[in-house]
Write a structure and sequence with these properties.
With about 120 residues, this protein is mostly beta strands. The protein has 1 helix and 11 strands, in the order βββββββββαββ. The strands form 2 sheets. Strands 2, 4, 5, 6, 9, 10 and 11 form a 7-stranded mixed sheet that branches. A 4-stranded antiparallel sheet has the order 1-3-8-7, with no helix packed on it. It is globular. The mean pLDDT is about 95.
Length: about 120
């Protein structure tokens, strides 16, 4: 069972990237899914979460209005569209999944499944 994240890269400030995370080994369609990020020397930081139905979404204040989380159950996947990127968005981004329904709990980072990270670098 794993989550495979992809889509990171190098982009200039103001640009966009779309991260993808595909689950394998089990269905994640009944799980809440989320994105976190981490920079060296700092704790992992919550970015966005989406409920199993897609009906509830929760963002960190730092990305609200710029990032959009979505999911495609037919592909067992979750996505993060990142627009208006800033140098402070530079980090390794991780996807995550958990069967807890409350997104505020998911945001605490105590989740069952983590994907490997994908590096996002935003140049100024």
């Amino acid at each position: 069972v794993q989550l495979q994240a992809s889509g990171g890269g190098l982009v200039q400030a103001g640009g966009s990237l779309r991260l993808s995370c595909v689950g394998s080994g089990r269905s994640f369609n009944m799980d809440s899914m989320a994105w976190f990020r981490q920079t060296p020397g700092k704790e992992r930081e919550f970015v966005a979460a989406i409920s199993w139905s897609g009906g509830s979404i929760f963002y960190a204040n730092s990305v609200k209005g710029r990032f959009t989380i979505s999911r495609d159950k037919s592909k067992n996947s979750v996505y993060l569209q990142m627009n208006s990127l800033k140098p402070e968005d530079t980090a390794v981004y991780y996807c995550a999944a958990d069967d807890v329904p409350r997104l505020t709990e998911v945001a605490r980072g105590v989740v069952d499944y983590w994907g490997q990270g994908t590096q996002v670098t935003v140049s100024s």
